[in-house]
Design a protein that fits this description.
Layout (H helix, E strand, L loop, with lengths): L2 E4 L1 H12 L6 E5 L12 E2 L9 E2 L3 E4 L13 E3 L5 E3 L11 E4 L3 E4 L2 E4 L9 E2 L10 E3 L7 H9 L4 E5 L4 E5 L4 E2 L15 E2 L2 H12 L3 E3 L7 H12 L4 E5 L10 H8 L1 E7 L1 E2 L5 E5 L2 E6 L3 H21 L7 H6 L3 E7 L3 E2 L5 E11 L2 E6 L7 H6 L2 E5 L5 E2 L4 E6 L8 E6 L3 H12 L3 E6 L2 H9 L6 E3 L11 H5 L8 E15 L20 E4 L4 H12 L13 E2 L2 H9 L5 E5 H6 L3 E15 L6 H9 L3 H10 L2 E2 L2
Parallel strand pairs: 1-19, 14-17, 14-18, 15-16, 18-22, 20-25, 23-26, 30-31, 34-35, 34-36
Antiparallel strand pairs: 2-13, 3-12, 4-11, 5-7, 5-8, 6-10, 9-10, 19-21, 21-22, 23-29, 24-28, 25-26, 25-27, 27-29, 32-37, 33-36, 33-37, 33-38
């Protein structure tokens, strides 16, 4: 009976029940090949180190009895034959039992003057001081690193028994994927086709684990072809990974192929993402069905594949440690949630997290994007694994995060506020100045509110007051008394207008055109300056928002809004010219608005803030922004 919908903990228990305690395979390899391998046996030294009494300093070998009562005022005086010069590491003849440091001696007319008394063995490394013959110098399971490599060479061990590494293969499947090497330019992909990139990610992961991974031939969505590929793989490999085809769609054949040729152990894991994962056995070879989305593939590799490798190599699994080893965790800590999160009940959930320090506290927030989003995964500082018992995670809750990157806590500034592609370009310039900047596009009003709560180092706003026609003044005043310490910096003016398809096929020219039945817009989130501008325009022209198709369809960035227009999901979006230019869309200018940075005085000296203020004056940065189009410097 195939087990379905297993909790992660049951998956790990099943793996151990099936593969723990097996007879381990051992390879005997040369020392030169052993770096990164795991020892299969204890290693015993065949010699003493050092194998002779050696001097620990530069000086003179002497008999300690001849130095009795020697002081700076009454030195011991030794004739030739009573001492012998030795370098550090030199052999000390048996008629001497100590070494005087050269700093404590002088030579006069062939006699040695010694100004300190020495005890037997002073500055002398005895035989076997470091390693005694027959002593265990490394144990089963130890990683052969650079230190052990040097030690083994020093004691004359040139062949090592190491645990055999399982040979693994990844078989990419699916009619929709384009195998590696078949197309170099993704811009030429026809609709419905995607580049096969999961194998690239897995190769890097296996490389970090120091485990060989081969990439098998691409297999189309065909049961017979997949069965043949699996049987062929069992002849050569110890571990088989199948890319995609693990769900229950009409073209998902992995589970059936395993059942036809072997045994299916489980299908579906109570984990998000990665839920469709499955595991089976064909000819005693474990076969893992990997979901097709990138983040799903990644977490299944961490939580299913890596523990399998540990068991195949070592015969045991350290449940407290293996996830950190799989992920390459640099730091594991608890931090406060900067925003609330609701997790599905009864399911372990992986979250991609970004991290920052505000004051003395460390904060994290989940990055948006589904399991298909490679961008969010690449941006993550670390990952949070929520247990199946976790449901509501209110803002401010402490959660454990595994950081896979070094976070520059003291030098990273958090920008929360209005979205702008030019500000995104400033990050590289900030990093060149030795600091860092992370951006959360939460809209102008959301950014000011974050500043008032002490949840950002700086913000940006372009909020039009429809009553006065001024920007930002009344909104900032509404956050008094906190805003009394805020300073404003006019960064640039930027053009706002209607973003439409090339050639403006719907003939959109004015705000009134948005009420037409054949026109659909994409809007921005409440609190965004662009949303405020749109609402002001609608109010001034007496237009009811209920007449606007798509008014409730929201995106959080100008580029996302432009993408909706480019792909025909909307006919028009209100946004900035640079976003229209980036996607080769037409732009109908409406207004030019001031875009202001808002920074509390307390953060002026923050390294990330000072680096940004310096970067925005950089000639190269300004020229890059000018090339984007739609900006004017004050």
């Amino acid at each position: 009976m195939v087990k379905e919908h297993l909790p992660l903990e049951e998956v790990w228990q099943l793996l151990q029940t099936r593969w723990a305690g097996r007879q381990l395979s051992v390879d005997h390899i040369s020392l030169q090949q052993a770096h990164g391998a795991l020892l299969a046996e204890d290693i015993v030294s065949p010699i003493n180190v050092p194998h002779y009494p050696a001097s620990a300093v530069d000086g003179y070998a002497v008999s300690s009895s001849s130095t009795s009562m020697a002081t700076a005022a009454t030195p011991a005086i030794l004739d030739e034959g009573q001492y012998q010069w030795v370098n550090t590491g030199s052999f000390v003849p048996p008629n001497f039992d100590s070494v005087a440091m050269v700093e404590d001696t002088s030579i006069k007319e062939g006699k040695l003057y010694l100004y300190v008394s020495l005890s037997p063995g002073a500055n002398l490394r005895p035989v076997g001081e470091d390693i005694v013959k027959g002593q265990i110098v490394a144990h089963f399971g130890d990683l052969v690193d650079s230190n052990l490599m040097a030690l083994f060479y020093a004691i004359g061990i040139h062949k090592l028994p190491v645990l055999s590494k399982p040979k693994a293969v990844f078989i990419p499947t699916g009619d929709e994927i384009v195998p590696r090497g078949c197309m170099d330019d993704p811009s030429c992909l026809p609709p419905g086709k995607v580049m096969e990139s999961n194998s690239v990610m897995l190769e890097c992961m296996f490389g970090k684990w120091n485990i060989p991974l081969s990439i098998g031939p691409h297999v189309k969505d065909d049961l017979t072809s997949l069965r043949e590929a699996l049987l062929n793989a069992t002849e050569e490999y110890d571990l088989i990974l199948v890319g995609a085809g693990s769900a229950k769609g009409k073209r998902d054949f992995t589970a059936e192929a395993i059942e036809r040729e072997g045994e299916l152990l489980f299908h579906w894991v109570l984990m998000k993402p990665g839920r469709p994962a499955l595991l089976g056995v064909i000819k005693d070879r474990p076969v893992v069905g990997m979901p097709g989305f990138p983040m799903s593939t990644m977490v299944v590799a961490w939580s299913v594949v890596y523990p399998l490798i540990e068991l195949l190599m070592k015969g045991s699994l350290n449940e407290e440690k293996f996830l950190d080893d799989a992920m390459g965790t640099k730091e594991k800590l608890k931090a406060f949630l900067l925003m609330s999160h609701t997790s599905p009940q009864g399911i372990s959930e992986w979250l991609r997290a970004k991290a920052v320090q505000l004051g003395s506290k460390k904060y994290i927030w989940p990055l948006s994007g589904g399991s298909s989003s490679m961008r969010a995964t690449a941006e993550a500082d670390g990952f949070i694994l929520l247990s199946s018992k976790t449901y509501e995670c209110p803002k401010g809750k402490e959660l454990e995060v595994r950081l896979i990157r070094d976070v520059p806590w003291e030098k990273r500034a958090l920008f929360q506020g209005s979205d702008d592609p030019a500000v995104a370009k400033s990050v590289s310039y900030v990093r060149r100045r030795g600091a860092d900047l992370v951006i959360r596009p939460v809209g102008s009003l959301g950014g000011l509110a974050a500043l008032a709560r002490g949840e950002a180092h700086l913000s940006a706003a372009h909020l039009l007051d429809p009553d006065t026609g001024s920007y930002n003044d009344s909104y900032i005043a509404s956050f008094k008394p906190m805003s009394d310490s805020w300073k404003r910096f006019l960064l640039f003016y930027r053009q706002q207008g209607f973003i439409v398809k090339k050639g403006n096929p719907k003939g959109i020219k004015s705000i009134e055109d948005l009420t037409r039945s054949d026109v659909r817009i994409v809007n921005r989130q409440p609190g965004a300056g662009t949303r405020v501008l749109l609402d002001s325009m609608l109010k001034n022209h007496g237009i009811d928002v209920n007449l606007i198709k798509g008014y409730d369809d929201q995106t959080v960035t100008h580029l996302d809004a432009s993408c909706r227009v480019a792909w025909g999901l909307a006919d028009v979006a209100l946004g900035i010219k640079s976003a229209a230019d980036a996607l080769d869309l037409d732009f109908i200018p409406i207004t030019e608005e001031p875009y202001e940075l808002v920074i509390p005085e307390d953060h002026f000296c923050h390294p990330g803030v000072t680096a940004l203020l310096d970067a925005i004056s950089d000639k190269e940065f300004r020229e890059e922004v000018d090339r984007m189009g739609g900006y004017r410097w004050p």
